[in-house]
Amino acid sequence: MLPCGQRYEPDRPGVLYVLNVVVEVKAWRPAVGGVAEAFHARFTDHAYPMHVHETWTLLLIDEGAVRYDLDRHEHGALDSIVTLLPPHVPHDGQSATPHGFRKRVLYLDSTLLDDGLIGRAVDGPEIPDPLLRKQVHRLHESLRPGDELEAESRVELVADRLRRHLRRREPAAAPVRDRRLALAMRDLLDRRIESGLGLREAAAELHAHPAHLVRAFSREFGIAPHQYLVTRRIDRARRLLLAGRPVHAVAAATGFYDQSHLTRHFKRVVGTTPARFAS
């Protein structure tokens, strides 16, 4: 039972109204290497006490602004920048406006960003990089079951750009062409159309850094590895649908997570749903 003055709406799980206080929280652990947790929230009146994380905190503010102290210095997280808070360093946080804030957070482990970069993150947690912000936004959008290769590719590119900012180096220039590596990756994807594969698994098999592997493939073929895999699956799905297989069976046979996963990608590539295509 909720305390007096609180109201729970069963048709909106995770949403709790307390007078004028709004709390919306969604947290989960994506099946993506290096990402310990994803956390989306909206708060109007919550203030974080001083605390620490064992992971890196990659923060986007979508509405409002957050004022916080990091290592006894005052900072602000705004919707125009990317904020990166290092592990093991105390920080707090509260809304900088009366209307609260909406945020999206990814907690990244040391396989993506090592502890040797903590000091530089303390000195400059705010990163005014519009392209990086767009990359992090797209990474959040890819955190769906069945799109793990896309999410892993995006997180490696984000981490590479973060490392360059922390090391005070310019963001990566156009990648050097590596045709041998790109062809090897294409062959590997062709062999794994149905079962799929993780980016780190592919990088280990091909003895390449994951970010370099994504860039080399994209440079050579003009399409990212996850996009290539999806289009190969869609081609196979088209043939099976025209042969009379039901949509749910086609989804299972072509490596999609479920029927809705197939439908979403099929409509984006072909311009119609699998059911309409088959009929």
UniProtKB/TrEMBL annotation:
Name by which UniProt lists this protein: AraC family transcriptional regulator
Molecular function in Gene Ontology: DNA-binding transcription factor activity; sequence-specific DNA binding
Domain (HTH araC/xylS-type) ranges: 183-279
SMART domains, alphabetized: HTH_ARAC
Keywords: Activator, DNA-binding, Transcription, Transcription regulation
Source organism, top-level taxon: Bacteria
Upper classification of the organism: Bacteria, Bacillati, Actinomycetota, Actinomycetes, Glycomycetales
InterPro entries noted in UniProt: AraC-bd (IPR003313), AraC_XylS_family_regulators (IPR050204), Homeodomain-like_sf (IPR009057), HTH-like (IPR037923), HTH_AraC (IPR018060), HTH_AraC-typ_CS (IPR018062)
Matches recorded under Pfam families: AraC_binding, HTH_18
